[in-house]
From TrEMBL:
Domain of life: Bacteria
Regions that span the bilayer: 35-58, 70-89
Annotated organism of origin: Tsuneonella dongtanensis
Subcellular localization(s) per the UniProt record: Membrane
Entry protein name: DoxX
Keywords: Membrane, Transmembrane, Transmembrane helix
Organism lineage: Bacteria, Pseudomonadati, Pseudomonadota, Alphaproteobacteria, Sphingomonadales
GO CC terms of this entry: membrane
One Pfam family it belongs to: DoxX_2
Predominant cellular place of this UniProt entry's protein: membrane
Membrane topology according to the record: Multi-pass membrane protein
Matches recorded under InterPro entries: DoxX (IPR032808)
Length: 137
């Protein structure tokens, strides 16, 4: 029950983020590190990845697809971490401090939780809730 509810919440979060990556990419382009090639294309592709991952999480026909969607969103969260860190560095350099530490530190610290949540919501792992000796599906 909790896993299902969190799956839907996570899917809604990723679907909204995917929509905004496609409909209003400017804020995402501003935080994309300089070393990323073709930033507009990468931001658009991240939006598509978020939308597909969200759809994969909540589809009911294939547990395997749900698992892959969870793994994909976990990998996605890991891959966008440099942009989140770059946003933090950009704001640190601003005279007004940008969004500040109260925004950036929890966001950066939550990234591993988001990675785990995608895996757990997608049923790619049962950790840490599995019984001793039970393995992930």
């Amino acid at each position: 029950m909790i896993r299902s509810a969190l799956r839907w919440i996570l899917a809604a979060f990723y679907a909204a983020a995917g929509y905004f990556h496609l409909a209003a990419p400017d804020p995402f382009l501003k935080i994309t590190p300089d070393w990323v090639p073709a930033p507009a294309t990468v931001v658009a592709l991240t939006g598509v990845a978020e939308l597909l991952g969200a759809a994969g999480l909540v589809q009911w026909r294939s547990k395997r697809l749900r698992r892959y969607a969870g793994m994909g969103l976990a990998l996605y969260a890991l891959c966008v971490w440099p942009a989140n860190f770059n946003h933090f560095l950009i704001d640190l350099a601003r005279p007004d401090g940008g969004l500040g530490l109260a925004y950036h530190l929890p966001r950066l610290a939550f990234q591993p939780v988001l990675i785990w949540l995608a895996m757990w919501a997608g049923e790619a792992t049962d950790w840490p809730f599995a019984r001793h000796g039970a393995s992930a599906k």
